[in-house]
Amino acid sequence: MSQRGTKLRIGITGIAFAIPFLFAAANLLLQPADRFVPAATDSDYFLPAGYNRLLFDDCDSVAWMIRAENARRGRLAGRVDETGKPFHVSNDTDLDRYRERIAANPPFAERYFLEYPPLALIFFRLCYLASGSDGTLPVSAGLLDEHEFNFTCHAPETPAERELYRGMRRGLQASVILLLLALVGVMLLVHRGIGPGGIASASPWLGLLPAMLYFTPCRFDILPAGLVLLAIALTARGRPNLGALALGFAIAFKLYPLILAPLILRFAFQTWGRAAVWAACGALPALLANGAMLLTDGLPGVVVPLQFQFGRGVETLFCFYDRLLPRAFAEGATGTHFRNGSVAWLVFVLCYRKPPDVESLLRRCALAVMLFVSLQVFYSPQWWLWIAALLIPLARTHRGLTALIVLSDLLIYATFPLAYDRMILGAFDDEELTRLANALAYGRAILWAGIAVILVRQEIAATKCSIDPPNRGTLPHPPARL
């Protein structure tokens, strides 16, 4: 390539890495300072008709600040469920009743509701340092013990409420910066290559697709997704125990990386002799985070968030049940055995032979996560970050794979916030909503099936090559050292 072409490529790459910082600036500018933006509202915010929602979502991340404020006050986590239910954003009667509950100033419950793992709470509290809260602000339990969606819809009315909301906004803005920095780290890792010598690298622009960019600052899923990628990179570069530590932090944020542990361990070692040290490194972060929570908040603070996550009810609006899968596989013991058994069987099959290289490991991890996500009884669009982080480093291995990654990202962004916001505003009747939900779910299934076919075909070829290598030599195995 000519010198001019090299400079142009470097310039284009530099622009890609600048965009997350510009996106962070746009978020900080458009977010109102003393309240939050509910879903799909006609509003007098900086962008009319709720179009702020095209760039950021307050509804989920507000929960982080509520949990952090409760912890800052010295309250104990472990409440089984939230008080109240989310009301319709345009229902004035519900809003009035909610204001009455706040004004009544009910006593605080013995424990506050926490649905996140302890390490996530530590991250929220770290961001909340920017709020300036000392935990003494006199606010009603009708705010801090109520559903976060209602909290988001409420316009603060008293000086104490406005101060609370301003502090929480500062905390969320700190989280925006930290999470987008995490995205930059993922982009840099993918740009340089997951494996040694630039193996499994891709354009950083794929980290800037709409859904990737949208969900990074308003969900914390980029943290476990990036840590999984870091764990694979460290393992591929001959640092399996450090990789296990990174994987352990990912598991402490979200449980889904547990299903990838056997695959990474299978890749890391020729034998199982050092598996105990590897497992100890992987378990350490979760043990420390959960141990600290156990000492401060007791057993409910550790157990109740797990019970909440594993006890989620069936929500078939955008998921594959009642469409590609029978509802019986989503409910009761039969559904639990089907989902867990399917994922366990796939992981066992993928572990049967050692992944010959880091691209093979990425393919196998992506297949396992895609099946795990597809079998969930509800749909969370931010799970795409888990899958995309594993697929993007493989984009250069197949042109069709790149196209499917882009289309999947666009479809997921179209599902949330675009279709979802219109849905909760009542823009569709029941029949139209059913058709829309079916189209989005089937479209996602078709795209993911195409991705799976490409990955399986590539994996069969790679495995065959490793068994019967060509004359030019075998694929390298990374040395197992710390």
**How many domains?**
2
**Major β-sheet annotation:** 2 strands, parallel
User: Within the largest sheet, what's the order of strands?
Assistant: 1-2
The overall pLDDT average reads: 89
What share of the residues does DSSP label as strand, in percent? under 5%
Instruction: Note the total helix count.
Output: 18
Shape: globular
State the end-to-end distance: 38 Å
- Find the structural class using helix and strand composition: mainly alpha
The helix content is 55-70%
Structure, explained:
With about 475 residues, the chain is mainly alpha-helical. The protein has two domains: about 35-165, no CATH class; about 195-465, no CATH class. It has helices at about 5-30, 60-70, 90-105, 120-130, 140-145, 150-155, 160-190, 210-220, 220-235, 240-255, 260-270, 275-295, 300-310, 330-350, 360-375, 385-390, 400-425, 430-465; strands at about 75-80, 110-115. It has a two-stranded parallel sheet with strand order 1-2. Mean pLDDT is about 90; it is low at about 470-480.
Which characteristics define this entry?
two-stranded parallel ribbon; mainly alpha; 1% strand; 2 domains; globular; 482 residues; disordered C terminus
